[in-house]
Write a structure and sequence with these properties.
Blueprint: H1 5-17, H2 26-52, H3 64-90, H4 105-129, E1 133-137, H5 143-178, H6 182-195, H7 205-225, H8 229-245, E2 262-266, H9 270-273, H10 283-298, H11 306-313
Antiparallel strand pairs: 1-2
């Protein structure tokens, strides 16, 4: 006899939401985290901005302080929700999120800083070799303004990189990885990363493609170490060296680095140098990202600890929690 339709429907509903080990499926976990963040971030940001704007501290829209506050709020929420979702849905400890001071964290951070700075420098060298960029020392700004820009942008890019990495390569990425869907994690988060920059000044199709490639680049960085230290170091160093040292637009933005060390002189080869969007909108960036991704993938010194590999490679059966 055929199975009772009610039992079949109940079984279907269970399978729709729960996997074979009794955990909520990774797609639903991803969705819950994303909805919670999209709901809570505007609420927190609006409330805190309302309070800060009343204080005599120069807080206002599009100021550096507003950028820092926004990144700090986003970072806090991404960490909190990442920990809560990991604990509630997957029985994981806080350190599974990849931002704890694990055994190799400092080494991964230093290597990330070196790779990020080296990668943007490679992109600049390619653009210069093909006549797409020239640079002059920024004499007109003055040393005080340059030092202020170096320091202020350091803070902005630090919190900005940390926020974006914890949000994009944090729980949303990692929950798919534990479900053996790392390829889907890279695809979805890279699309998120690319579309998130489409509203930047002078963004175009080529800049969106390069930002998607950067999402793959940073996703590979996470998979090689299973923490966010390498990816955050890369992300920060790329942005800071690009804007504060070379004076290039950072994803079309110039207001963060108003007095950089060098002044970029564009020449009419925007396909190479990216034109008014910055080097991330040109072929030189594409070449650097591909080369840097290959370096990260094959570099033997980059590897996870046994603990982080265990926490990020497979799901834990329902009813069991790790401490």
């Amino acid at each position: 006899m055929d199975e009772n339709p009610k039992i079949q429907n109940k079984s279907f509903m269970i399978d729709l939401f729960l996997n074979e080990i009794g955990r909520l499926r990774s797609g639903w976990r991803f969705f819950v985290f994303l909805v919670l963040f999209l709901f809570l971030f505007p609420a927190f940001a609006t409330t805190i901005s309302f309070i800060l704007i009343k204080l005599p501290i120069g807080y206002g829209d599009n100021t550096l302080l507003a950028r820092i506050v926004g990144a700090v709020i986003g970072l806090f929420l991404a960490i909190l929700l990442g920990w809560a979702c990991g604990r509630f849905f997957e029985g994981l400890p806080f350190r599974a999120l990849g931002i704890w001071f694990t055994k190799l964290w400092f080494k991964d951070l230093l290597i990330g800083l070196a790779i990020g700075a080296g990668s943007i420098s490679l992109a600049v060298l390619v653009a210069m070799a093909f006549g797409g960029l020239r640079f002059n020392y920024n004499e007109s700004a003055g040393s005080t303004a340059i030092l202020i820009t170096l320091g202020a942008s350091f803070i902005v890019f630090t919190f900005g990189a940390a926020f974006e990495e914890v949000l994009i390569r944090g729980y949303m990425f990692q929950t798919f990885t534990r479900a053996k869907l790392a390829w889907l994690a890279i695809a979805i988060t890279s699309l998120f990363f690319a579309f998130g920059h489409m509203g930047n000044p002078n963004a175009n199709v080529f800049s969106t493609i390069n930002t998607g490639l950067a999402g793959i680049w940073l996703g590979i960085a996470y998979l090689k170490t299973r923490t966010l230290w390498l990816a955050t170091g890369i992300h920060f160093a790329w942005n800071w060296v690009q804007g504060a040292i070379f004076g290039i637009e950072v994803s079309g933005l110039t207001d963060i680095t108003t007095a950089p060390l060098l002044k970029e002189v564009d020449v009419p080869t925007s396909l190479i140098s990216g034109g008014s969007y910055g080097i991330e909108g040109g072929i030189a960036c594409t070449i650097a990202l591909i080369a840097s991704t290959a370096l990260i993938w094959f570099l033997p010194v980059l590897k996870p600890t046994e603990e982080m590999l265990e926490l990020t490679s497979e799901e834990i059966p329902a009813g069991r929690n790790l401490t």
